[in-house]
Amino acid sequence: MVPALAGRAGCFTAFEKRWAEGQKRPNHGRHFTDADPASHLSLPRQMLELSKQGRVASQSRARIPTQSSNTEDHPMGFFSKDIKSLDDLFVHTLRDIYYAEKQIEKALPAMIEKATNPALKAGFEKHLQETKGHIERVEQVFEMHDVKAKGVNCPAIDGILEEADDVSGEIDDKQVLDAALIASAQAVEHYEITRYGTLIAWANELGRADCAAVLEQNLQEEKATDKKLTEMAESRVNLQAAE
Ligand SMILES: [Fe+2]
Ligand SMILES: [Fe+2]
């Protein structure tokens, strides 16, 4: 049973937290199957039994900082009822990518430090400078749209960056590490590409072709970076990692 439990560790950690907070847990959310020998026990006993078997994550994973001084308190705003129109949604998503760009700006120096392939290192350095420009362009769009420039927490980019940090921390081989860094960077680029693509479409729908044109510049740089990463991976880094 043990191998199948690896993927459940996060669920148990969340469960432990909820249990500690004394919240009621509905039956349909239980993480125990009928086949589980502990399933006939009360929930606290189940936790105890599973802990004894080493099947409950005892520590939550270290998290990268996710709070920014210019973010709102609620994570995404999806449940705040603040988003009443496409314009509101546009502003919310602009704040999401603003937060994401700032998190990426914070994460890139560590990726530069870890990269061993000179071309990859230089590529990350270049993209750090581009990312600073992306932040400025998003601020420009806030201003053009006459709304305050601020971020909203984005668990999606936090998760991508956290995973990148976790995986790279597990690798000693330099070439394999470079391959992992490229894969993580491409996950980041694809997130940015989807956000900018959506924002551009909505800006045009809202009659703001001027905002769309500014965002398009960011999108093109994200796409170019993604393409370069693919070329690097296919031409050298993956080949070296496989040796
Ligand atoms: Fe960016
Ligand atoms: Fe990017």
Automatic annotation (TrEMBL):
Task: Please name one Pfam family that this protein belongs to.
Answer: DUF892
Q: Which CDD domains match?
A: YciF
Region annotated Disordered, chain positions: 52-77
Highest taxon of the lineage: Bacteria
Write out the biased-composition intervals (Polar residues).
Answer: 56-70
Instruction: State what protein this is by name.
Output: Ferritin-like metal-binding protein YciE
Source organism of the structure? Aquamicrobium ahrensii
